[in-house]
Amino acid sequence: MSTPNAHYGFAERWLPRLVLAPSFLLTLVFLYGFIAWNGYLSFTNSRLLPNYEWAGLVQYATLFENERWWVAVRNLGIFAVLFIGGAMAIGITLAILLDQKVRGEGAIRTLYLYPMALSFVVTGTAWKWMLNPGLGLEKLMHDWGFTSFTFDWLVNSEMSIYTVVIAGLWQSSGFVMALFLAGLRGVDDSIIKAAQIDGATLPRIYWKIILPALRPVVFSTLMILSHIAIKSFDLVMALTGGGPGFSSDLPATFMYSMAFTRGQTGLGAASAMMMLATVAAIVVPYLYSELRKDSHG
Amino acid sequence: MANSEKFWRFALYGALLFAAAYYLLPLYVMLTTSVKSVEEIRAGNLLSMPMAVTFDAWSKAWSTACTGVSCNGLSGYFWNSVQMVIPAVAISTMLGAINGYVLSKWRFRGSEIVFAMILFGVFMPFQVLLLPMAQTLGMFGMANTTAGLVFVHVVCGTASTTLFFRNYYVGIPDELIKAARLDGAGFWRIFWRIILPMSTPIIMVTLIWQFTQIWNDFLFGVVFASGDAQPITVGLNNLANTSTSVKEYNVDMAAALIAALPTILVYVFAGKYFVRGLTAGAVKG
What we know:
- Chain B: Residues 78-270 form the ABC transmembrane type-1 domain.
- The structure holds 2 protein chains of 2 kinds.
- By secondary structure, chain A is mostly helical.
- Helices cover 71% and strands 0% of the residues of chain A.
- The two termini of chain A are 14 Å apart.
């Protein structure tokens, strides 16, 4: 179907292109054009209002000297490692447990996955209440007799980023479970049966046969989770607002506050370019390999 | 042997139930807190059952709670979100269906490149669009309007919808199209008569996916809308972060549940499609 036959009329041959044109133009102008525009802004001295005079690498130099930016980058590192690692571990474990011919599997799965339907703002608001020092978890523990229990991570600038990890894991680990469960169901039963006949134990079968077969799922899940991590904005805004101070800032919240609340347009644009570069470094090789796989059948 | 088998089953169900409790806990806490009075919240703890159920916090969250300077509750934000989500979902889904149809069944030279270019839109961090988009919306008088938000969501959502439909249509045998073409059916007739009637599952997936994404969006809402056009997520965030002398967690929780209700309902009634949507974007085939 890839090449329309010659006896199809002019309209039939050009119609597909014409139909695709609006979306193509939207993409070209509003994605790629805007990337270029934002890129240009990052090379200007724009403050509250954009100005289009070329200023070279000034904004990038400022960015790399900015302590707050490095806090955001370091936080992203901590958040990404713990969030991705934790969600993978919880997700795979729950998927394997659910795969043991469990009664009521559908209902249990539904419970694990519903946080994914909520917005990060809702998740952040809920966890902010549960983690607040005073009335939340701390009071609960005191009521249960652990009177020396303190949990002030939310207002502790050393620990605030870890509360973002806690809420993020709650929101997304069920989703990883769903991805892996779908993957597990796709593994050929006959290989597993053969291994069982050979006397392999269940953990060994999972470790040696099933998990290696799930490599593509692991890979896509890693992609999606790292993508969520880099884009994380709402959760931080709702849970900690980036605080205390700017101790739980991520690049996304840094960009927002520079560009829209502190009138540092050029700096905001530069930080956005850094985010784009990070995502592109991860995603472009992935898309390239996916599309190549596609065209080879 | 039988005993150890029993023990493992017991441990398995124990672990699964423990995990279920972990996922359910915040929902339980939100629900119970939202029907308690402020005094009761102070007296009890996170897990204590409400002694006297009251829906005051709900009505306050809906109509009189303060979100920054105004004190009209979340109702206005809620309707803003409704007005935003319906056209944005409808338009991005339609565009996705048509794009997917062309990109799978009417490929032409360069169509793969077009697909790859659109696909990058699924992954790109939207932060790079914010500044230029704010300028552009301002130029066209669409800043701080629901129409502006609809436009942004269509631009950014069409990448995912195109991906969904394209991957689904690739699975429809080409022979079907060939046969129809031999019978003299053209581009549109094949779309309306053959492709679309087979598309119900993927349309459901896309509608639910887009609805959830757009309803839950916060970034575009907070950047491109102010005051009268702000969506529910922004309203909730304003409400929860408005400092009052006495923090009313019951109102916060009622507000969070109001903001979550539409997507929870979709999840409950169309969960099957929701899961399929989540996995369709990630695991191909």
